[in-house]
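Input sequence (128 aa), recorded before submission:
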Amino acid sequence: MLSYGVILENQIYYNRKVDYISLVEEYLRENAGKAGVSLFQWEFFTLFRKDNKALENLEKEILQEGLQRLANFSIDPKSTEFSALINQIVSDCAFLRFNPEDSYGITLDPFRNSIEKNFFKMQKYLNQ
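Predicted structure, C-alpha cell format:
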C-alpha cells in the first residue's frame, strides 16, 4: 500500500499541474526579490499541503471503502516525472537561505535558477 500511496500522491500533484505551473510562472515573471520569494514559498507550500491533505483523505476513504474507491481514480504515467519536479521545488524552498554567508542551503540566485529550470521542464505537461 505504501508504494501505491506514492503513485496516488504523484497523481494528485499531476492533477493540479496547471496550478503549480501558474504559480511558478507568476513568481518568475514578477521577480520581486525577497518579498516575492517569501510569497512564492508561502503559496507553493499552501498548495502542496492541500494536496497532501487530499492524499490523506483519499487514503482514509480507501481504508474505509476498500480498493473499489480507486475504480474512478486514473493514474497517468507522466505523473511520476511531474511529481519529481514538484519535490525538487519543495526541496529548494525548504533549503532557501536569504543570508549569502550561510553555508547551508541555497541563496536567491541559485534558487531562482533552479525554479526556472524546473519551470521549463514543467511546461511540457500543460497540454497533456
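Checked by second reader. The chain has one domain: 2-125.
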